[in-house]
Design goal:
Two copies of one chain form a homodimer.
Chain A lengths: L1 E9 L16 H13 L6 E2 L8 E11 L5 H11 L4 E9 L9 E12 L12 E3 L5 H11 L1 E4 L14 E12 L2 E8 L6 H13 L5 H10 L14 E8 L1
Parallel strand pairs in A: 3-10, 5-6
Antiparallel strand pairs in A: 1-3, 1-4, 2-3, 5-9, 5-10, 7-8, 8-9
Helix pairs in contact in A: 1-2, 3-4, 3-5
Chain lengths: 245, 245
Amino acid sequence: MRNILLTIMYDGTEYFGWQLQPDHPTIAREIMKALERIIGKAPTLYVSGRTDAGVHALGQRANFYTDSSIDIFKLKEALNAMLPSDIAITQAEEVDIDFNARSSAVNKTYMYLIYNMRYLSPFFVNRAWHIKHNLDMERMRDCAEAIKGEHDFKAFMASGSIVQNTVRTVYSLDIEKQENLIRITVTGNGFLYNMVRIIAGTLVYAGSGKLNRSDVEQIILSKDRTKGAKTAPACGLYLKGVNYK
Amino acid sequence: MRNILLTIMYDGTEYFGWQLQPDHPTIAREIMKALERIIGKAPTLYVSGRTDAGVHALGQRANFYTDSSIDIFKLKEALNAMLPSDIAITQAEEVDIDFNARSSAVNKTYMYLIYNMRYLSPFFVNRAWHIKHNLDMERMRDCAEAIKGEHDFKAFMASGSIVQNTVRTVYSLDIEKQENLIRITVTGNGFLYNMVRIIAGTLVYAGSGKLNRSDVEQIILSKDRTKGAKTAPACGLYLKGVNYK
């Protein structure tokens, strides 16, 4: 039995997210269908974490077990030949039998893109959040300081989620602007449901003058989702990468 | 009478190029339709140069005459509200009555994108030429030297074109690589039909070891299109900008 780890890039626009769903195209279904054609059987995919409808990935990871002896380079080439053009396998490697793309992860990095101009570039349709008014970068960076570190992020979790332990550590939260594009990059040991999109929403509120650093501190302390900013749209979110030991 | 100059960005994937065509969506038709709704009449658009089906633009320019007294900022906002999301007006300005987006142009800059990896990034589908084998950047840059300057570029013009004077000056031709993306940027006083795509095709032949610098010099001297490399696909081409005095 071999354990194979895939690194996957996708434009999530046309999909109902990662997870298998009846009657809807999903990323997992496309990959399983392609694997079935190549190795004769659709394996279970162990993903680092599901992504929602419309969310993209630059470096999603998923592993699966197979008895197939197919050469790893040929497997990758065959997958890319069969998959639709909005999904690409950027890497395929054999890993230890007890490796799991989810539980072996040490930390994850997400990117959130904001196109900040009166018009939206045609090249970022469905690929960034369009904010027309000017955002104050200094204020966004100041509020980001309040989010960094270990906190109980209950106020940054979609209401209705039922996770018990809502303490997470944000190792870094960087905001850079290049021409009209604002790129938020956040690395943490784990993220609650919608947490990155709520962070992006909070930073946009900050950049719009609606929140300052102490407001953000108070929101975190409140542990109350209703006190915070709105959730940023899915189309701006990219799973950038997953790090393993 | 006012003369208004638009700067236009578009993803050309879904269009049959710039120029009006019966029964086909084109960039000019979309802009004229939107202008008709805003100023009550579809004006003639004077474009810096037509783009072909599938070709993109970051800074296309077109002017038109109107009697409308509409505020220029409002005109731009209304256009962006009405145009499909793959066309954006990035600038609108009033110019001298005798300004013409084509004949007033001093030079133009095109960009050509090549995605150089075994797989194609989902984010560059229809937006770059996918070349799987590794391209030799040094050899591409060496061959670019042969193209720079004033030459009779008849060998770099689509066969069937009927332009009399085929002498053009290429002021700069730069090739840079960032991760898997090769970006060719070329500025010239004018370009023959398909000239930039033939330059891109020639540079890819060079990077693949099929041509060296003296071969390229010989191709130019031959003035014979059949001696050269194949024309690169439209999807990698972007009209980056047009410069006026």
